[in-house]
Amino acid sequence: MKRLAHSISVLRILFAAATMALAAKAGTTYVVYVGAETPDQGVQADAFFPNEVWLLQGDSILYKFVPRNEIHTVTLLAPGQVRPPAPPPAGPPLGANCPAAAAPVTYNGSACVSTQAGLTALTTPSTFTVTFATPGNYKMVCLVHTDMNGTVHVLANNAANAALLHPQSYYDQQGAQEANAILNDNSSHQPLPQPLSSQNLVVAGIGKIAGTGGGLQYGSVVRFLKDKIVIHKGESVTWENLDPTEPHTVTFGAEPPMFIPPVPAGLSGQAADGTLTATFNPAVFLNSGFLQAQAPDRTGTPQLSPGTTRITITFNQPGTYSYHCALHDVDGMLGQVVVLP
Prior knowledge:
Blueprint: H1 2-24, E1 29-37, E2 43-49, E3 52-56, E4 60-65, E5 75-76, E6 100-101, E7 105-107, E8 113-115, E9 127-132, E10 136-141, E11 149-155, H2 159-162, H3 168-183, E12 201-212, E13 215-225, E14 228-232, E15 236-242, E16 251-252, E17 269-270, E18 276-279, E19 286-287, E20 310-314, E21 319-324, E22 334-340
Parallel strand pairs: 1-4, 3-11, 6-8, 7-9, 12-15, 14-22, 18-20
Antiparallel strand pairs: 1-2, 2-13, 4-9, 5-8, 10-11, 12-13, 15-20, 16-19, 16-21, 17-18, 21-22
């Protein structure tokens, strides 16, 4: 019995040593997918898949960008840091407080790291590797998409924490389930019934936000629902963005040099209810600017005004006029207005 007890004790010591050795082996790389889309690019899943990951100090995440044209960033800010604007091609270059990086980077929680610009599966590079050097719980965000975020749990490198980790197969399965749930949720892709008085209405995008234990994910239908509308001379068309977070534009004409999508052009003003208005002129570039729901109010901050989600355009000249969303035309968000005599 003493010999057996001694053998068991030895096995326990050897097992504990092996476990400690396994835990001490830093350098594992996990894969997280950035974004997803349907084959026609009409539905975009703006999310990290999965958006919650556990790893040990010294481990890395290889972020793989999935959409062909929809841009995303991988950004880890310092705690409390003011969020910078989206980098090129959506905005200006990142400043010194969030230095851009193309090569693999190390994040220790004290300073921002981010991709140089919005990346896609077709850009170079199309991956971004971050090594996590310091234990902590960190938020990962996309600077292009406000409600696209997640959490990275970086654990001290010891045997107890090693038991909390998941294999890559777990993350692959969870990420695939989350992406499929967003891309195949037909209930979130249908606009609500509109009153008969709104028969000349075009829905300019629709979407849905989903919450997980790690943060927020959302799906966005980047299409004009009723992409071809037929009206008569003198009638108007109203475009309404029903997406809870994603902005869209209604843009007629070739975009001029140095065009900035959020800036309106060729408009007449606003109606009493805040709807943007314009009278269409084929010779004048027309851009709605961002049609977008307002961000949620936060306790302790000033209340925000309602968002601008509609534009009404009157057509006084017969013809066939093409338009697009200046943000998502690369995904196929295109439309046409046919004006009959």
